[in-house]
Amino acid sequence: MAWYLRWRNVFRDDALSTELDAELAYHLAETADRLIEAGMPEAAALIAARRQLGNYTIQKERARDMNVATWLDQLRADAVYGIRQLKQSPGFTAVAVLSLALGIGANAAIFQLVNAIRLKLLPVKDPEQLVVVDWNKDSARAGSWSTRSANFTYTQWDVLQAQQKAFSDMIAWSASQFDLTSGGEPRFAQGLYVSGSFFPALGVGAELGRTLGASDDNATCNAGAVISDAFWHREFGGDPRALGRRLMLNGYPVPVIGVTPPSFFGVEVGHRYDVAIPLCADRLMAEDHKGRIPGRADWWLSIMARLKPGWTVKSASAYLSAISPTVMRMTLPEDYKPGLAKKYLADKLNAKEADNGVSDIREGSENALNLLLSITGLVLLIACANLANLLLARATVREPEIAVRLAIGASRWRVVRQLLAESLILAVSGAVLGVFVAYALTRGLIALLETPDSPTFLSLSWDWRVLAFTAGLAIGTCLLFGLVPALRSTVLSPAAAMRASGRTATAGRERFGLRRALVTGQVALSLLLLVGALLFVRSFHKLLTTDAGFSREDVVVVQIDFSKASYPETQRLTVYRNLIERLAAMPGVISAAQVGFAPVSGSGWDNSIGPENTPAAGSNKQAWFNRAGPGYFKTMGIGLLAGREFTDHDRAASAKVAIVNEEFARKYFHGINPVGHTFHLEMGAGKPEPLFQIVGLVRNTKYYDLKEEFRPIGFFPVAQDEHPGPGMNVVLRIAGSPGSIIRGAKTAIAGVSSSISMQIRMFSEQLSDSMRGERAMAILSGAFGALAACLATLGLYGVMSYMVARRRKEIGIRMALGADRRRVVQLVLKEAVLLLAIGLAAGVALSLWTAQLAQKLLFGVQPRDALSLGGAVALLSAIAMLAGYIPARRAAAGDPMSAVRIE
Amino acid sequence: MPKSPNDKLQGTLTLLVLKTLNTRGPLHGYGLCEHIRSVSDELLQVEEGSLYPALHRMEQDHWISSKWEITNKGRQAKFYSITAKGKKQLAEENESWARLTRGVMRVLTYS
What we know:
The structure holds two protein chains of two kinds.
Chain A: H1 3-11, H2 13-37, H3 42-53, H4 56-88, H5 90-119, E1 130-135, E2 144-145, H6 154-163, E3 167-179, E4 188-194, H7 198-202, E5 208-209, E6 225-227, H8 229-236, E7 246-249, E8 252-259, E9 275-278, H9 281-285, E10 298-299, E11 302-307, H10 313-331, H11 338-345, E12 349-353, H12 361-397, H13 399-407, H14 412-449, H15 464-489, H16 494-500, H17 513-545, E13 555-561, H18 569-584, E14 589-595, E15 606-611, E16 622-628, H19 632-636, E17 640-643, E18 657-661, H20 662-668, E19 678-681, E20 691-698, E21 713-717, E22 727-734, H21 738-752, E23 757-762, H22 763-770, H23 772-806, H24 808-816, H25 821-850, H26 866-893, H27 896-901
Parallel strand pairs in A: 2-10, 4-9, 6-8, 16-21, 18-20
Antiparallel strand pairs in A: 1-11, 1-12, 3-4, 3-11, 5-8, 6-9, 7-8, 13-22, 13-23, 14-22, 15-16, 15-19, 17-20, 18-21, 19-20
Helix pairs in contact in A: 1-4, 2-3, 2-4, 4-14, 5-12, 5-14, 5-15, 6-10, 12-15, 12-17, 12-23, 13-16, 14-15, 17-23, 17-25, 17-26, 23-24, 23-25, 23-26, 25-26
Chain B: H1 12-24, E1 27-28, H2 29-39, H3 48-60, E2 64-70, E3 76-82, H4 84-109
Antiparallel strand pairs in B: 1-3, 2-3
Helix pairs in contact in B: 1-4
């Protein structure tokens, strides 16, 4: 009978009961009628009728429950019996549950990240109405970009708001970092500048106090700051009296006016906001008290909008594209030269769905996450194959039991169901344990990817997607590893099974094929994962050892920020020199030099150049730049190939000079020694292009990250910077313990002024932060590869042990007839080698076929890397042979007599 | 007269119900009892305790279907009728019953 009918019986208890009552009542009435007709008095007739019907309640119960009760009882019996069976073999149960927990947990963890980064909706009002306003690809813009996901200038924001008719609300924000201290080592809060419409339009209220409103973004700008729930707890211990307290943001006091609910983290997935202040506050925080609001080439805002009813993302996008010419005309930056201005006026805007927020990590992590999801998927598949194998072995052991059940009348389906119940118990236990594994793994993963400079925040709560995914995994795996063994073990005729229980000298081969196939598949898949792991480990190793042009060790980077100490611009160079001299004089410091920014720190600056007296504008000859003080190249260990370093004689007043790298010389001076040659640098409209004379040639160095190709780089002297900023970077070459030198440097700087902010770290730490993605991939793929290899080895071991057990009598007879132990070991190993060889061959083919997928994530290693492939084959062969050798030894060590006598 | 324990013989009740519904058309439970009793010259007495559970099981197996109707005495009664699937089942049960009785008769008449 169909199961849903049974369930209907369980749940439609009342309806069914009334129907039965009516039916039985009718029967009673008719019986009574007949008795009365026959002459019985009415009262007696009713009693007699009822007696004839028997026990009324029992009837009802029987009619109603007979199917349900037995069915539920069977279900319970299956569960109880399953648990008892599993208890009897704790070793098997432990291996099964543990491998499932690891497999399911790893999958759930990666899926949780995918969910948090790509799928989850923003925790705001009607997120499906939100769009993010963006530029069409290859839009021409120039200027200064000051923060992540910065896309618009303030003028554009103003004009867009006034011009558009497609959106009911528009919001703008800009991410920033606020130093909470008033000097010394900085403590940063993740800041947001937000438009007055930000909180009202998103429908985010305050859990305490109030949020910023439209009227707070005004000229006086004295509203205050809204803080996140997490920041409130971290900074104020969740004290309601935090309202009205003053926060120091970059040395500027701002009162707290409200706290947002715990679920709201901002609109950028991957980042969490701590403090939000109005856009107008940018003026107050800026050093020049003008800020980025008037700058038509200051790109610092991101814009989202809420669609009016009836508008779609597509229609809004078309609309934005249509009004783009007007917007561009009204926002054209003054200093664009005609060529760029023409391109800018042709730029188009568009709208994209933003129901799950915007994210700068989404695109970057897509490849890696997909790959990780495939890797964990394969691990789970291997774990399932392993379990199916173990279950097949168990099923063979239980063959007589199952045969008896079938012989005394159990239906095949009934036995399959019972076996599946056991698998389901395993799968569900594995999934439950896997949830804990996932919990630990996601947090570990984020910690692995996070650095002090870029805290990563992902909302990792378990929503229905993750739960459905995990439950789906549990049921899917159960069917995957449980169904085939259950079906196979019930297919044979009971008589045959009972006869076959150990009475033949050699095991039947026909039922062994599937297990061999499973082991072969496991070997193939784990080889694939091992190759992947070796590729990533080798790629990471290449990154660690690649020649970046500078020395990675024994360099300390000191970042100093004077903005709170407010030295006037004219005094700055003197203060800098004073500080560098103090740092250079410290014990353990070999040399100290100023630099615009340390390499691979994320900062950068590029412009067009015109070599040998040609104009730079429109030359399409792009180069990247940095500033360096005297002794910088020596301090960083960058080889000077020709000419000289900058010296104290390169001053603001002296001739403009530059040092370039090999790539610069190769690309723009045809590889000749460029010392003595000159180039122009592009400037804004109306300004003359300055001419620089090249005085030195240095070796190539990496600029943005270690994975890039060498770029053409030019260095200018720090002393010729016309507008020195309120901060500087110093690199120190040290000999001795970094700890004491870093402590000494802190004291030395604080000695100049206590209101100077500083950050001091080893250059190597900064480099290793820049490699965190590669490091995480190497660790994860390595761990999963090792897990896969372990599982495959376990599978092979299981099959070999089983085979040895089945052929025990045969081996005993062979030995009794004179085969020596070596022959027996060979006999068994031959089987293992065959399985391994087929698996490896399939695995190599699979690796070669899929290797291309990893290409984008690799550095310095070809996806079809022979060394990785060979290494994986060797590694897997070695441990697999060990797994085959142990059962082989055991077989050979047995006493032939006892083997033959066993029955 | 002792009741014949017809329902103890597995499957007989199903056969009787299906056969009755097939020849007599829609009937309620009481009518089924009466019909079987009278047609068998009171040799067979359907035990009500088994009849209703059996009817429900057969209904869930889609051998019979049911409908509530008013009898000519004005009472609500549940009328059962045989389905196409039930007719197939009837043919099968008929066949196996015939085989059984044939076999039993042969054993009994063997001398």
